Amino acid sequence: MGKGGFDFLGFHFERYQIGRGMKWPRDKSRKKLRDKLREKLRRGRSGSIADIIIEINPILKGWLGSFKFSVPSAMRDADQWVRERIRHIVRRRHKRRGIVKGRERIEYPNRWFETQGFYSQEKAQAKWIQSQTGHH
């Protein structure tokens, strides 16, 4: 993500002004999350989507607990990756071939995932930030 900076305790830190900076999960941390989720989000996986989401939600909650101080785009990227994996499972179940992301995104928009019980790290982080700043 960045050009300089340093990695420490699972984060990548960058300074963009004197005394001001940003941090996000380092590449190794993101890879560990994806590897852990990949086991649970195999394309040929059985079980209902709601059950799969119930199974991965604790992993997503733990990830947010560790990296909630990151820039919001880190949580958005992780959420998008998980949604795409679940869309792959749905596509496979409907016996669709190839990558037709547009169609699946229309048929299964982000709000569909909310109805299935998906824990959105991006929304949870936004609520947490809002509670910290006192703007309820």
Plain-language structure description:
- There is one protein chain.
- The relative contact order is 0.13.
- The protein has a 3-stranded antiparallel β-sheet.
- Strand 1 (6-8) and strand 2 (11-17) form a beta hairpin.
- With 136 residues, the protein is mostly helical.
- The protein is built from 6 helices and 3 strands, in the order E-E-E-H-H-H-H-H-H.
- It has one domain (26-133).
- It has helices at 27-40, 49-67, 72-93, 101-107, 110-115, 121-133, and strands at residues 6-8, 11-17, 20-25.
Biggest pleated sheet: 3 strands, antiparallel
What does the radius of gyration come to? 17 Å
The succession of helices and strands, N to C, reads EEEHHHHHH
Count of separate structural domains: 1
β-strand amount: 5-15%
Spatial strand sequence of the major β-sheet: 1-2-3
Poorly predicted segments: none
Structural class: mainly alpha
Give short descriptive properties of this protein.
about 140 residues, mainly alpha, 6 helices, about 60% helix, about 10% strand
